[in-house]
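User: My advisor, Dr. K., asked me to get a structural model of this assembly before our group meeting. I'm new to this, so sorry if the format is off. These are the inputs:
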Amino acid sequence: MSTHKLPAIVLALGLGSGAAFAAGPNLGTPIEPGEIAPWDISIQPDGTGLPMGGGTPAQGARIFAQKCALCHGENGKGGPFAALVGGAPLASGIDTPKTRQQPRSLTDNEVYALTAYILAENKLIGENDSMNPETLPKVRMPNRDGFIIRFPDKI
Ligand code: HEC
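Assistant: The format is fine. Below is the predicted structure of the whole assembly, which you can bring to the meeting.
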């Protein structure tokens, strides 16, 4: 191929792909911010992204008895599945198997209340402490220094 034809070929390819992109494959529809919001549930370590609301250990205890005790035992002391209260600190690393159960079946307030209940039962917060977007990020978990930060420069 002679070199003087190259710019013409590049130009033709460029125009061709530009035209194809503009036309698009005609799949899907543009998504509105309001449609994205329910799926945008990431929460930062400093609490940014936590939803409004709150809950106390007493409220959480009632929800726990209805929705959790069947598997985790009365007061979370262990049943057919893991004890959530009083266990030894994690020792087997992050590879412990975890199971997801009915994601999104609890309201934000129920999650705050259950979190308050389990933290209070484990004596990590007081029994009357409410968990909400301000108080939750301030809880100091006992194993907080036991994690390896994979990308320290990204914090
Ligand atoms: C149908 C049975 C079942 C129900 C109901 C259930 N869980 Fe679980 N839960 C499990 C299983 C199985 C695991 C995984 C245990 C493991 O990793 O060893 C788990 C793990 C957990 C863990 C992590 C435990 C850990 O040591 O890391 C928490 C916290 C938890 N569940 C809380 C709850 C709460 C709160 C509720 C009620 C809203 C609930 N679970 C309802 C079966 C259940």
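One thing worth pointing out at the meeting: Residues 74 and 151 are 40 Å apart (CA to CA).

User: Perfect, thanks a lot.
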